[in-house]
Amino acid sequence: MANRGFASDNNAGVLPEIMEALVQANKDHTKGYGDDDYTRRAIGLFKNEFGAATNVFFVFNGTGANVVSLQAMMRPFQAAICAQTAHINVDECGAPEKFTGCKLLDIPTPDGKLKPELIAPLLHGFDDQHHVQPKVISITQCTEMGTLYSLDEIKTICNFAHKNNLLVHMDGARLANAAAALNCSLADVSVNAGVDVLSFGGTKNGMLMGEAVLVFNPELTQAVKFIRKQSAQLYSKMRFVSAQFIAYLKNEQWRKYALHANKMAQLLASEAAKVQGVKITQKVQANGVFAIIPQDWIEPLQTTSFFYVWDENRSEVRWMTAFDTTEEDVTGFVNHLRLMTK
Length: 342
What we know:
It contains 13 helices and 11 strands. The chain is α/β, with parallel strands linked by helices. The protein has 2 domains: 16-252, Type I PLP-dependent aspartate aminotransferase-like (Major domain) (Aspartate Aminotransferase, domain 2); 253-340, Aspartate Aminotransferase, domain 1 (Alpha-Beta Complex), CATH 3.90.1150.10. The strands form 2 sheets. A 7-stranded mixed β-sheet has the order 1-7-6-5-4-2-3, with helices on both faces. Strands 8-9-11-10 form a 4-stranded antiparallel β-sheet, covered by helices on one side.
């Protein structure tokens, strides 16, 4: 049987604690649309984690979380600034633009990270009716390149944004991996650093489905429940999302599994780097490994452990580890890499 692939942490299964939580939530009837004890408990856990002023809105998926977040933050004549590699720019089929009516202003970066000096040239044309108005800076943590913003880097961006009357959105699809790698709390890497709205993900770290929009800026909260409904992101049987988050957040289960995924990525990168013909292209800071390998290796390797090509022109590939990746999976894949050199 082929080894587990390294295409995406989305390809992994569901944590046993999450599956058991779903079984328990399935035992009886309860009110729908979030008016249930599971949802109240889950919201309480989020408030314990991020602060009592946090407003929590559960949605189906990551794109939904981003779309709802951005709609709450902008009007159609405004724009969001993001890295060129941002998920909202590359992998959401134009959903942010469609639902918000806004423009995305994307910035090329070598590592997926924005900096004030990269953003500043786009801050012009304010109050000019002919120009789209910058309003949001959207950053991803971990980035789509597997890199991390330090806590100071996030604070710097947030301070810069707020001084320029901008808001900060964070795509936290892999926020657990980031907080685990930085050895900090989920709040430290988001609300405590100045983020206004967070798309918080659990699916990539062992949940079955469901994400959360966390609104920290009270001025943005009022319309979110209506935006969620219009965006087809209001789940009638919400307890099945909420129950997962209860199991996920309780006793920091998220950290345990994120740490393991990160550890497996470090192992994969260190061992793969020893193979002649493999060049690691980005700092391995969470659970993603980016590497350039010979073009003719890709298809044979994909037949044993599937992964995605990131940049065909450079023959750059992406290897993602997950909560259930094992050392044997890594060893087996690296052995296949070595065989390609013979």
